[in-house]
Amino acid sequence: MEALAAGAAAGRTGTAWLMGGNIGALYFRNGWVVGAELEGAAWVRTMLVNSGRLAPTAWNDFVAAWARTDGDPPTAVPDAIGLGAPEWVALGREATTEAAFELLPPNRPDVVADMVFQRDGVPPWTGSGRPIAFSWLRWEMDRRQSVLDLLQAVVTPESPIARLADERVGPVQVSAQQWRFLAALSDGATPRSVARRLGASTFATTILAAQLMRLGMVGRRSGAGAWRPPPEAFPRSLFGAALPAVGGARVPRG
Predict the structure, then answer these.
(1) Strand, helix or coil at 40?
(2) Which residue, 2, 19, 49, 187, has most beta carbons within 10 Å?
(3) How far apart are CA 236 and CA 172, in angstroms?
(4) Cβ–Cβ < 8 Å for 13, 71
(5) Distance (Å, rounded) from C-alpha 99 to C-alpha 115?
(6) pLDDT tens, per residue, the chain with 254 residues
(7) 11 phi and psi angles, rounded to 5 deg
(8) Considering the entire predicted model, what is its pTM?
């Protein structure tokens, strides 16, 4: 992390290859992070292709168009279903944070990591997004680690999870993201394996698992079956009541 921070402070341009439990890259231009790729995990291509919003050939066309850039740049975003510029920026930021967090997690000093910085190799398509300050990236990595620390007693990215038998009477409404998670939840799954299947970040699927566990739809698998955490197991700072609103009313969160 300190080597990356030094490169950012020096305004370097190039590719930082990160090698730890996985292999990935952060791309820098003039000290700003402009993109990332992570082997076997979510980056912008897998987020779009695995969700069915973008054909692999369409991504290849997008990359090729930027590689041929001479003068005016080509279309700013891939030709994906419903994808606009704001979401493209958000996906790029999510993929960059995922790559950095998976390779250099703040609270896992036991991970042996190495970095090689090359002065070239920055893919032209990274010019289509919005640069990220490395200081913000470090802050976001620490924030995500603090959330996972709070959830550790309930679920971790490596926790075996399973769907629970439906004990409700009547319909239950879930979000589109929660439904995709449930549909991808196979026997022996973990939040990390579901993330790989969906092309989502491991952090995001861990949060989804915690939400569905709180709803009683998912449990942690153990030798005795699927365990449903009691309500008091969930951290109030994430799932508790918010501060009183004007007039003394309390607004539910989570």
Answers:
(1) coil
(2) 49
(3) 23
(4) no
(5) 13
(6) 888 999 999 999 999 998 766 788 999 999 999 999 888 778 889 889 888 889 999 999 999 988 887 656 677 889 889 999 899 999 999 999 988 888 887 776 666 667 888 988 899 999 888 999 999 999 999 999 999 999 998 999 999 998 887 666 567 788 888 999 999 998 789 999 999 888 889 999 999 999 999 888 898 887 667 777 877 888 887 876 443 443 444 333 33
(7) 70, 35
(8) 0.83
